[in-house]
Amino acid sequence: xxxxxxxxxxxxxxxxxxxxxxxxxxxxxxxxxxxxxxxxxxxxxxxxxxxxxxxxxxxxxxxxxxxxxxxxxxxxxxxxxxxxxxxxxxxxxxxxxxxxxxxxxxxxxxxxxxxxxxxxxxxxxxxxxxxxxxxxxxxxxxxxxxxxxxxxxxxxxxxxxxxxxxxxxxxxxxxxxxxxxxxxxxxxxxxxxxxxxxxxxxxxxxxxxxxxxxxxxxxxxxxxxxxxxxxxxxxxxxxxxxxxxxxxxxxxxxxxxxxxxxxxxxxxxxxxxxxxxxxxxxxxxxxxxxxxx
Length: 293
Ligand SMILES: Nc1nc2c(ncn2[C@@H]2O[C@H](COP(=O)(O)OP(=O)(O)OP(=O)(O)O)[C@@H](O)[C@H]2O)c(=O)[nH]1
Ligand SMILES: [Mg+2]
Description:
By secondary structure, this protein is an alpha/beta fold. The protein folds into two domains: 7-172, P-loop containing nucleotide triphosphate hydrolases (Rossmann fold); 187-290, 2-Layer Sandwich (GMP Synthetase, Chain A, domain 3). It has helices at 21-29, 72-87, 104-111, 129-140, 159-169, 187-202, 207-210, 236-243, 248-265, 285-290; strands at residues 7-15, 47-53, 56-62, 90-95, 117-121, 147-150, 171-172, 212-220, 224-233, 268-277. Strands 1, 2, 3, 4, 5, 6 and 7 form a seven-stranded mixed beta sheet that branches. Strands 8-9-10 form a three-stranded mixed beta sheet. Strand 8 and strand 9 form a beta hairpin. The longest helix has 18 residues, at 248-265. The radius of gyration is 20 Å and the shape is globular. Guanosine-5'-triphosphate binds at residues 15, 17-23, 36-38, 40-43, 64-65, 122-123, 125-126, 152-154.
């Protein structure tokens, strides 16, 4: 009997904003590693998610949705996508067939690379097969794919077949991380992401896009973790909106954020939030870099 060789490799998850990239990664890992919301441009960093079984380790790189950047923060986000494109042994282009706008920027980004690409057609739970196939045909005219998969990241349809096909593309190699690891980011990263997720869920229009989170301190005690974080806003006028009437908005943000952090670390959390104004931080390369992008 021949043993299955151990295989490992990097898989970059690339696509337009809101296509379901983070949902797909979370679904494969069976764990919420990357935040997801109904709003585009939720993901801003390269988020590492590690899938392991006895004979495979796949390191997924979730990335921000591909856009034409307008300010420094978005430029940094697109550098992240380019890095993942360079690091991936295989690329998954996540495509949302219910999206009525063109996919040109993503196609442009992937046109010149010489690596296998899978087209992963997501959200098949909300479009009929014929309509999805028509859309796929128009993308296949522009890019060559090693395989096309139809999936629903929300429902989990097509995940086993996708995983098996990803594995078939990987080369024999050792695991790079301990098999029980699901990610590699420090807990502070997840804390700031979970607060940012609540910003996207609770605030409207420009607010979530104008904010970032800076975890100032994280103290671990036996019974409780004490976390203090700044919410950085882009304009002075946004501070009041974040705080809300009588502090109601920031209170709600704090409660929901604390609950999701507690769920992650399975421990009681004391969370202190402060709003700070950094005039036009999104447009300034220094600030963008200092704030972790
Ligand atoms: N109906 C349906 N909705 C989905 C599916 N997968 C993801 N979604 C929804 O699509 C929205 C965007 O999902 P995300 O995973 O945040 O998308 P993303 O591509 O990571 O988005 P960005 O980080 O903004 O680039 C969320 O509301 C998801 O619930 C799916 O298979 N079916
Ligand atoms: Mg995302």
